[in-house]
Specification:
mainly alpha
Length: 108
């Protein structure tokens, strides 16, 4: 015996539902069609869209990055200290020059 395929069953259900306005039969036909379509073409496995080709950083790389950040931090700290000393020296020089200028103006 040759059993009808799920698609044939779905088509028969659709033909039967066309002649009737019964909502239940229409829904049954739609469900039968969906089942037939699922049996014929199984869904392809979905894959993610982002790239997995880029390797993650190793522990050695992270240690190197941390060391570079520390060295950079010390460099910025010393540069800030040098600028503070330079500003203080410049202030003292300005005060001394102002005193010399005032003394020259008074005629001493």
């Amino acid at each position: 015996m040759n059993e009808p395929s799920p698609l044939d069953k779905a088509e028969a259900a659709v033909r039967e539902a066309e002649g009737s306005t019964d909502v239940a039969r229409i829904v049954a036909a739609v469900l039968a069609t969906q089942q037939a379509m699922q049996q014929q073409a199984p869904a392809a496995p979905q894959s993610c869209q982002h790239d997995h080709g880029k390797p993650r950083r190793s522990a050695g790389e992270w240690i190197g990055i941390a060391a570079a950040v520390c060295v950079g931090g010390f460099g910025i700290a010393f540069a800030s200290l040098a600028l503070a000393i330079l500003g203080g020296v410049a202030g003292i020089v300005v005060l001394v020059l102002r005193g010399v200028w005032n003394d020259m103006q008074k005629g001493r």
